[in-house]
């Protein structure tokens, strides 16, 4: 069963970008599903920061991404590429 990724971005007191969608993969663990969601969130954060930069609204502080799964946080500190065998 596919997991659901969800995130939202706020600026000041308003939410301006959000997502809730099924993941493209079937995760083998909760940690993997959380890691995939964090990755999607980080990709969106990079895109938003680039758009803000184009609008001359550069963000000097890092974007905080909150993840509540310790295993996913550990994976993010030492990612290992997934290898498929045939």
List how many beta strands DSSP finds.
2
Main beta sheet: strand number and arrangement?
Answer: 2 strands, antiparallel
Give the DSSP E fraction (strand runs of 2 or more residues). Answer: 15-25%
Helix content: 25-40%
What is the succession of H and E elements? EEHH
Q: How do the strands line up in the largest sheet?
A: 1-2
- Please, how many domains? 1
Tell me, what's the shape?
elongated
* End-to-end separation: 22 Å
Number of helical segments? 2
Structural class: alpha+beta
Rg computed from alpha carbons, rounded to a whole number of angstroms: 15 Å
Q: Average pLDDT value?
A: 90
Instruction: Point out poorly predicted stretches.
Output: none
Protein name: Retrovirus-related Pol polyprotein from transposon TNT 1-94
Organism: Cajanus cajan (Pigeon pea)
Overview of the structural elements:
The chain is an alpha+beta fold and 86 residues long. The protein has one domain (4-77). Helix content is 38%, strand content 20%. It has a two-stranded antiparallel ribbon with strand order 1-2. The longest helix has 25 residues, at 30-54. It is elongated and about 50 Å long. The two termini are 22 Å apart. The mean pLDDT is 90.
Characteristic key phrases:
alpha+beta; elongated; Retrovirus-related Pol polyprotein from transposon TNT 1-94; 86 residues; 2 helices
Short structural summary:
The protein has 86 residues and is α+β, with helices and mostly antiparallel strands.
Topology:
Elements: E1 4-11, E2 14-22, H1 30-54, H2 70-77
Antiparallel strand pairs: 1-2
């Amino acid at each position: 069963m596919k997991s659901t990724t969800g995130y939202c971005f706020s600026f000041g007191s308003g939410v301006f970008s959000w997502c809730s969608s099924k993941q493209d993969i079937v995760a083998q663990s909760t940690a993997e599903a959380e890691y995939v969601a964090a990755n999607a969130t980080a990709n969106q954060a990079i895109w938003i920061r680039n758009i803000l930069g184009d609008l001359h609204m550069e963000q000097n502080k890092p974007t905080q991404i909150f993840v509540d799964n310790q295993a996913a946080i550990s994976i993010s500190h030492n990612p290992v590429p997934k290898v498929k065998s045939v």
